[in-house]
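One such given next:

>
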Amino acid sequence: ELPNVKHSADAVAIRIPDDDGGDSDSTTTDITYGKLKELVEATATILSESAGLGAGGVPGDVVSIVFPNEVSFVLSFLAVPYTRSVSAPLNQNYTREEYKFYMEDNESKLVLVPEAGGGVPEAEMAAEELGLPVYAVGWNEKDGVSVKHKSGPKTIARSSSSESPADEVGGNGDGGQEKKKAKLTFEPRPSDVALFLHTSGTTAKPKGVPLAHSNLVASMNNISRTYRLTPDDAVLLIMPLFHVHGLM
């Protein structure tokens, strides 16, 4: 089983400085571990019910995630592997052709973009050319998480033998009668691929690097030991989250 990190549900997991131009009296917005868990589970459930992510216990769907550093990136990145699917973060400054290359190479089934700021047009155009569903994910302190279909098909393409998401998670049948809803349960395993990255491509064509949950846990343990991090420490993030050093 995957190890559980013991934290109080009321402990702060993410602290977001308010954009105040560097005022020393600035305030922050805090997200506790309990709230983060709630938001991630809500995001995963919506993606499963609406887009069919992980529906029917099908593991391994790759999801291209294209966001700046913001809370909705964190929620998307954590929610995807929670459904036994694979997060594939991409640089938000790629060109359409670069997005097409990476989405085809990692065999993306779904693309997630930010709700705020008009999304990421180049990534959305690439997804449209590849026939991929695009969903926008947003978050604010008042309303919580928002996940909405933006363009392309509404659900992940499956083989004809696969059940439709509506059959598994509910929906309106003939005559407006609601079908029985199956309980959504997600049980990620240590061997499941959780993250898909590409090499930089400095000396050759970029190559895909799949990383399992167990790989990520080992990396985080090594980083914690190296920097002697404790639950009382706060870490300032300045790296882009699409990069492995920002994620870890």
Observations:
- The radius of gyration is 19 Å.
- The chain has seven helices and nine strands.
